[in-house]
Amino acid sequence: MKTSESLSASRRALLIGAAGSALGSAWPACAQAWPAKPVRVIVNSAPGGLTDVVARLVGMKMSAALGQQLVVDNRPGAAGLVGAEALSKAEPDGYTLGIFASAITVAPSLMPGTTFDPTKDLAPITLLMSTPMLLVTNLNSPYRTVAQVVADAKARPGQLPVASGGNATMTHLVAEQFQVEAGVNLIHVPYKGGAPALNDLLAGQVNLYFDTLNTSVKLVQEGRLRALAIVAPQRSPALPDVPTMVEAGYPGVQGNAWFALFAPAAAPPAVLARLSEEANKALAAPDVRERMTSMGATVEGGSPKALSDLIRSEVPRWSRLVRDRSIKM
Fold first, then answer.
1. Alpha carbon distance 306, 298 (integer Å)
2. Is the whole-model pTM more than 0.85?
3. Which helix (H) or strand (E) holds 270?
4. Which of 21, 200, 254, 273 lies at a C-alpha separation of 20 to 30 Å from 246?
């Protein structure tokens, strides 16, 4: 027969077990209720930029599927670090997300004082879209092939200017890669954004620029710019006559602009899984695919792990280039 003390111990054990069961079942119920209010999406670029366009395009589809609005919150600055750091410090409850460009893998190596680490402070969800880089020149320039550019650069070291959309942008980094691989020395001319760089290229103020394909593709198709090479493993269906950098003899010139969906690092796994599922569904929608393809972009998609692997491969690669070429903001 049980004593009163043993009965009390039994009751305590039952109460503890019941509490544990309640806690264990609380999260699935919470996950099913999410989202119960609008979701903020931090975009680390200004309104109207490509990251912003991607965020609004994908966000509209996901809003309809989730039954809650995805509200864009533009946080540009410091090569994308302002927005990325804001997301990393947000409450990890699934109500703050981020859509960031590939610059977040470069920015930490340019800002020695930052504590932000894209491999640790963000939860990767889905790679949304990518666009390769394109070496373009104006119609009045003497260049029709990459070989001609290299020959001229070697004949006149340190005299040929190459434009970029700003220090440490992808347009700059790929130009630095090209100089390393081709063994040439160009003059870097950074602009305050891609638009003024492109305007001066069209006007003949500079003759070389590594632009994103989505920005220059129409100008090339319309005969307003000449494309010398695309930085991609294969030729683009949008510009089938333009050779790759591999074909030009420089396989080490690699890099594209990509855009991806993230959450804070400690976000609930069930919410991350739902977001990845809905993002992939949005990317599969014919109207979304048509819009992205028309911009000269590649529709991506995929798992959180695939995006995580991409980030972990890119961070050390760009860090080495930044260090070896003494690139600064």
1. 16
2. no
3. helix 269-284
4. 200
